[in-house]
Design goal:
By secondary structure, the protein is of the alpha/beta class. It is 41% helix and 24% strand. Strands 3-2-1-4-5-7-6 form a seven-stranded mixed sheet. α5 links the parallel β4 and β5. The protein is globular, with a radius of gyration of 16 Å. 37% of the residues are buried.
Length: 197
């Protein structure tokens, strides 16, 4: 829920043209949508949108479908159970979004490549992540210490967090153009790439 609030309160403030475009409708894809809460929030705020969530964990798929049905939005939100690294979508979505998920995916590069393929001409890929400081001691802050602590847990689970430069390397390896980065007041970072069209 915190990441959803960060997107609406801070992320959209950085992307006023995206908010304006979503008011007019459009198609939205949430990659690794978890329990579907972000999709529900988008559907409520932007009633003209059509939304698809992709999730690879079976328990999250069921939870997302239940949440969408309970919200009465299953006519506008479709949840698909599939891997994120080889999605079938091509040039279809005005917004493709990954929320605090890219670093957790089994194959972040393939998933990013697949997400970028789904973006329609003129649309955009938006990735919200919490990034490690560039150096372990820079800056020394409570948030930096917290992120390095989370990194230990991520490594234990077989995943890892990245610095801004690390995300840049993922984008380059996936063949995605360099992102514009907005560092948000909460400490999260927004990576945005618009597809020419």
């Amino acid at each position: 829920m915190q990441d959803i609030a960060v997107f609406f309160q801070e992320g959209l403030a950085q992307l006023p043209d995206l908010a304006a475009a979503l008011v007019g409708g459009g198609r939205v894809l949430d990659v690794a949508c978890g329990g579907g809460k972000w999709l529900i929030a988008i559907a409520r705020r932007f009633p003209g949108t059509e939304l698809v969530g992709v999730e690879f964990e079976p328990d999250s798929v069921e939870r997302a479908r239940r949440h969408v049905a309970e919200a009465g939005l299953d006519d506008r939100i479709r949840i698909e159970a599939r891997a994120t690294d080889d999605m079938p979508f091509r040039d279809e979505f005005d917004l493709v979004y990954l929320q605090d998920a890219l670093h957790d995916l089994p194959d972040p590069v393939a998933s990013l490549r697949s997400a970028w393929a789904a973006v329609a001409p003129g649309g955009r890929l938006v990735v919200l992540e919490w990034c490690l400081p560039d150096e372990p001691t820079d800056p020394e802050s409570l948030q930096a210490e917290l992120l390095w602590g989370i990194q230990i847990d991520e490594l234990y689970q077989g995943t890892r967090m990245y610095t801004h430069a690390g995300y840049g390397e993922l984008f380059a390896a996936a063949g995605v153009p360099a992102a514009t980065i907005a560092d948000l007041p909460s400490g999260a970072s927004l990576f945005v790439v618009r597809k020419s069209g």
